[in-house]
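User: Predict the complex with 1,4-anhydro-D-erythro-pent-1-enitol.
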Amino acid sequence: MKPDARNHHLDELNQDFLYHLGLDTNMDLEAMFGDVQYVCMGGSPVRAENFANKAAEFLGLGIPEGGAQPIGKTERFSMFKVGPVISVSHGMGMPSMSILLHELAKLLDYAGARNAKFIRIGTSGGLGVEPGTVIVAEEGVNAMLKSTFEQIELGEKREYPTTLDRQLAQGIIDSRGNIKAELGKTMGTDDFYEGQGRLDGALEPNYDEDKKMAFLRRAHEEGVRNIEMESTAFAAFCLRAGIPAAVVCTTLLDRLKGDQVTSTPEQLGQFSDSAQCLVLQYIRKQLSQATV
Ligand code: R2B
Ligand code: URA
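Assistant: Here is the predicted structure with 1,4-anhydro-D-erythro-pent-1-enitol placed in the model:
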């Protein structure tokens, strides 16, 4: 986090309880987290654990006996650390992820790990791309296709830009090897069903197939290649904090062809593996360049 983004009110606290992580500033956070360079996050706790074990193997750190173990409490988020990499789950949607981002950014600031990059590795619905393609976001756009994240603070609406780090995105794309990956805009919504224009939610929608397709085609024409539920809040937070950030999401289906996720568990596993491997290939390259 850049120093001028840091909340000066924190200086008034004797002790800061990072309540949802189950950590606080009376712990030796510097010893625990001072060497962190990459924070990788995704929705699911299972994927966070898998990624931690995969990172340990991929980066030659050796898998700890019994696999990576969570740090802090696991009621809300599951956080693992292997070498310089944190792997943590953020739940579904922007409110859940936003809580994690505040506590993680404070944690790393207290630990003195002030140059860490944040990478969201997630799932999404593709737009005009073959399922399994990984989209590395150029920027986040909201459900109105605007490059902003809107937050209500004390009864007032505020808009924050959702620009992402282009150099980091390009670096990740350049590490793709034979993984199918491309750059594109990522649309972040507040719902999986009507918020993403699906016609398979529980309630009778206020739109029909033609209206849905017209919107999805317009989004595609404007450069959107995938739709998920966190990118705009993630991009806006990291930009305000001065944290280099990337959103790397696999696509589970092509929304120009349908709404239902019909892939088998094996296919879904492969899809999410691709996004994780792409990020690990990038991190491995960066760490090896740093040690030359
Ligand atoms: C992608 O997948 C989840 C919904 O299925 C949500 O967290 C997202 O962004
Ligand atoms: N996650 C989403 O948010 N949307 C999809 O279509 C698939 C995964």
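The helical segments are 29-33, 45-58, 94-111, 166-174, 209-221, 231-241, 265-291.
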